Amino acid sequence: MSNQAASPAATYTLSAATRARFDKETAKYPAEQRQSAVMACLSIVQQEEGWVSGAAETAIAEYLGMAPIAVREVTTFYNMYNQRPVGKFKLNVCTNLPCQLRDGQRALEHVLQKLGIEDGGTTPDGLFTVAKCECLGACADAPVALVNDRQMVSYMSNERLDALLDTLKAAAK
Ligand code: FES
């Protein structure tokens, strides 16, 4: 997955390969309900670009035959869509109540302090973006974090968080 920090894109062109991926998603729905694939299309763009720009939203809207504002509503409703460039590794640390009761806030603050950034910030080297998030559906494993929207990490003590950061840094080399 390419989750590289990128400069804000003023334009977005739907490549043949991306269009083919979109086609695969819309094929799952009746033709008159192709707009149901909007979340899948947004996820594909994010996988490929690292974030979803306004230009990409417009391209998705044109592809699905819906108003750009309707795509925007989806992008802004779900916090898994990046509305600006993020670091190579995006860490979301859950701070909802069950995780809070088991040190979710401590886990978030530990990572932020270790990386020297604020909540929602990106390290100067473009490697990490860290932000708190809502419940990830793994409360029993609290405190939990999610790496690049895909990999759940559980029972995040300070030691485990340090090890995770070290592993990701090594993976980036
Ligand atoms: S509250 Fe953190 S995973 Fe549910």
TrEMBL record:
Coiled coil: none
Keywords assigned by UniProt, alphabetized: 2Fe-2S, Iron, Iron-sulfur, Metal-binding
Cofactor requirements of the protein: [2Fe-2S] cluster
Keyword Lipid biosynthesis among UniProt keywords: no
Family, as annotated: Belongs to the complex I 24 kDa subunit family.
Alphabetized NCBIfam families for the sequence: nuoE_fam (TIGR01958)
Protein name per Swiss-Prot or TrEMBL: NAD(P)H-dependent oxidoreductase subunit E
Lineage: Bacteria, Pseudomonadati, Pseudomonadota, Betaproteobacteria, Burkholderiales
